[in-house]
Amino acid sequence: MFSFLNKIITTFFEKSSRRIKPIIFLQIILGALAIFIWFQARSVADTPVYYTYSGILRIIAGFVLLLRGIEIWIINKKGKKEYIKWFVLALMFFGMAIDQFFS
Q1: What is the pLDDT of residue 9?
Q2: Phi/psi at 32 (5° precision)
Q3: Which CB contacts under 8 angstroms, 24+ apart, belong to 73-81?
Q4: What are the C-alpha distances in Å from 77 to residues 9, 71, 80?
Q5: Which residues contact 44 (CB under 8 A, 6 or more apart)?
Q6: pTM of this prediction?
Q7: Which residues contact 20 (CB under 8 A, 6 or more apart)?
Q8: Which residues contact 26 (CB under 8 A, 6 or more apart)?
Q9: I need a labelling partner for 78 at 20 to 30 A (CA). Which of 26, 36, 52, 70 fits?
Q10: What is the pLDDT of residue 47?
Q11: Buried b / exposed e across 38-52, counting CB within 10 Å, b at 16+?
């Protein structure tokens, strides 16, 4: 059982000090999606749909920050609490998105 888990860990996690492949791929995909939505939002800037696009952009930014915090939490085992900053930033972006949707 442990050898199977070790194979999975060595496949996705190259070294403990480097970035995690699946999380960085997901961040790149979300970044590309955010750029696409940003171009869509620019084309409808004077309509109420703009606020929906703006909220979606903030949700995507929140997820990117949340993934960054998770990545730092997985990599850093020494007890530094740097990941808390990323989690708080993600919560702030989620809060701004909720405010954008409901106001």
Answers
A1: 65
A2: -65, -40
A3: 74/13, 74/20, 75/16, 75/17, 75/18, 75/19, 75/20, 77/16
A4: 16, 11, 8
A5: 50, 53
A6: 0.75
A7: 12, 13, 71, 74, 75
A8: 67
A9: 26
A10: 83
A11: eeebeeeeeeeeeee
